[in-house]
Design brief:
This protein is α/β, with parallel strands linked by helices. It has helices spanning about 15-25, 65-95, 115-130, 165-180, 225-230, 300-315, 360-375, 395-410, 420-440, 445-455, 460-470, and strands at about 10, 30-35, 45, 55, 100-110, 135, 150-165, 185, 190-195, 200-205, 210-215, 215-220, 240-250, 260-265, 275, 285, 290, 325-335, 340-345, 350-355. α9 (about 420-440) crosses α10 (about 445-455). It comes from Streptomyces longispororuber.
């Protein structure tokens, strides 16, 4: 006779998506086994490295497809609305003084190509969803003081966007899960999945017995590939999960008032420069984004830190240079080839996934947790664009070069630009060189470039193509 299941559901992963999902499932009366680290530095975890901007609109770019914007913004707006009820529940359950810092400034500077158009796109997206977007003179933005060589020429105030302290939020979720009688937390590392007796799935762990349950939720972020490698007996039919390495800096004693977050529009394959104030007086400065093999480097590179500090100082506030660096963070953001999350049932209905939230994990957490809990309890699941079994069409290189090459060029140029047409010359050189190498380049360097693109046909890989060529 087979032993009974160890839980109604096993949730793998202790980032914000895993913790939020485990809490939501437990609140609905399910017996939950949570698997993943609780203590320690959580090196590489995106959630604990996040600036935690709850930004449905300021992540929009002018070049984005309008239909795609409508799909993504709809989900982000729904997630932001959930925070107004979800955060008070978490505050009450944990006893922690969780609070949102309301509002977010987006500034246009001469450091970004077409920043004025970016502000237009952000404002249009907000107003299309019934949210205000207020135009201001840059002089109205508290805490904005860029270098003279990088003038600010526009500002947008988004009062319904917000920020939250990611450390406090993760601590609150940890507290409520440890105290919940329906949750058991196992800190061993999950190594894979396999079929078990009856209809259950077994979670294998390093140095510990298997855990059996009728449902398993994969919320392991960029650890998905390793987990799937140990799950060969199950056909989950999941697409690749890539990792974007983000580096951020924590500052104290910055001699400026910063009542709300300030950011630039999207650029350089990332979410732009941003300063986020926290209640303890720390200023979060973020963030880079580079396609990186998972776990390759869990510490920031010197060049990442110097570039981040220089660009944020020049574009947002030169007085950052007078602050004290009290910490750095590195997080690997999980993302798919089409940059949409994977949320719901896999090809094996016993296994669900909640991952690939990229730069919006903190924002989407209550929304994703609700979706997964609805699956687990048989409640109605509204239609959404995050179906894990969807067909994902990889990016084509010609279109990627045409659309994204200016972002690659910007990585080589200072924020204030160049006095000559260096940008155009460099763009032409990179366009022809990369396309030639990927399509018909010979020799080991050409092969390395082609292999890099085949493994990750996404815009973020353009920088990696250059790295592959130069190695």
């Amino acid at each position: 006779m087979a032993r009974p299941a160890d839980a109604d559901v096993v949730v793998l992963g202790t980032g914000v998506i895993g913790l939020a999902t485990a809490w939501e499932a437990a609140r609905r009366g399910l017996r939950v086994r949570l698997v993943g680290p609780r203590l320690g530095e959580h090196q590489g975890q995106a959630s604990r490295a996040a600036g935690a901007m709850l930004a449905p609109f300021s992540e929009v770019a002018a070049s984005d497809n309008s239909q795609r914007v409508a799909l993504e913004v709809r989900e982000r707006v729904a997630a932001r609305a959930l925070y107004d009820s979800w955060l008070p529940l978490l505050r009450q359950a944990s006893g922690r003084p969780l609070a949102l810092t309301p509002g977010l400034w987006v500034v246009a500077t001469t450091g970004g190509r077409g920043d004025a158009a970016e502000l237009d796109a952000i404002a249009d997206a907000a107003r299309a969803h019934g949210h205000p977007a207020e135009r201001h003179d840059p002089a109205d933005v508290p805490g904005l003081s860029p270098a003279r060589s990088v003038a600010a020429h526009g500002a947008l105030w988004l009062p319904t966007e917000a920020t939250v302290d990611s450390g406090e939020l993760m601590g609150a979720l940890t507290d409520v899960l440890l105290a919940h009688e329906g949750v058991e937390w196992s800190e061993e590392h999950a190594t894979g999945l396999r079929p078990s007796a009856g209809a259950d799935v077994a979670v294998t762990r390093a140095g510990a017995p298997d855990i059996r349950a009728p449902r398993v939720v994969l919320a392991v972020g960029v650890g998905l590939s390793d987990l799937l490698a140990g799950s060969g007996d199950l056909d989950l039919a999941l697409p690749p999960m890539l990792a974007g390495k983000g580096v951020s800096v924590l500052l104290r004693h910055v001699p400026t008032e910063l009542p709300a977050a300030i950011r630039t529009p999207m650029r350089d394959f990332a979410c732009g420069m941003h300063l986020v104030p926290r209640a303890d007086g720390v200023v979060y400065l973020g963030a880079t984004n580079r396609l990186t093999p998972t776990g390759a480097v869990t510490h920031p590179l010197v060049t990442e830190l110097t570039d981040l500090l220089r660009e944020a100082g020049e574009e947002l506030n030169t007085r950052l240079y007078e602050g004290q660096v009290v910490g750095t963070r590195v997080g690997y953001r999980p993302f798919t080839l089409d940059h949409l999350p994977l949320v719901g049932r896999t090809a094996d209905p016993r296994v669900l996934i909640a991952s690939g939230t990229y730069r919006n994990g903190m924002l989407l957490a209550p929304r994703v947790a609700e979706m997964i809990a609805n699956h687990l309890t048989g409640a109605t699941v509204e239609a959404h664009p995050f179906d894990p079994t969807r067909t994902i069409t990889p990016h084509a290189l010609p279109e990627t070069l045409e659309h994204w090459l200016p972002d690659l060029v910007d990585l080589f140029l200072p924020p204030q630009g160049t006095p000559t047409n260096m940008q155009g010359v460099l763009a032409d050189l990179l366009h022809h060189g990369l396309r030639s190498l990927v399509t018909d380049g010979s020799g080991p360097r050409g092969a390395a470039v082609r292999r890099t693109w085949e493994q990750a046909p996404v815009p973020e890989a353009l920088w990696s193509l250059l790295v592959a060529y130069l190695k």
